[in-house]
# Entry
Amino acid sequence: MFAVIENGNRQFCVREGDTFNVDLCADVAKGDTVAFDRVLLANGGGASTVGKPVINGALVEAQVINPVHKGEKIEVQKMRRRKNYRRHTGHRQKYTTVRITSIKVPGLETAKGSDE
# Structure
């Protein structure tokens, strides 16, 4: 079974047990549960459910593994030749690492023994 969820203008294809980074979630601690209710698509192996735009009643639950994780540093340099203009800035995005624990979609058939 897999689902496509939306979080912070990004879409993620997730399965139970997957670990991935989402934008920083404020006020969460290690071991807390986070729920994603914007489920766009779900597939149980036998059938698929597509939301318009989201599936009503669908919920993907995740456990927080690392509340604050920093991504790679992005460096921006600007220069105008012969004008004595140089700027150097940087940015480092903060993420929260989560692991998917359950995918709940009402009325979705799940195929038994499917190897997804």
Strands lie at 2-7, 10-15, 19-23, 33-36, 39-43, 48-50, 59-80, 85-104. The longest strand covers residues 59-80. The chain has a mean pLDDT of 92. Residues 27 and 67 are 9 Å apart (CA to CA).
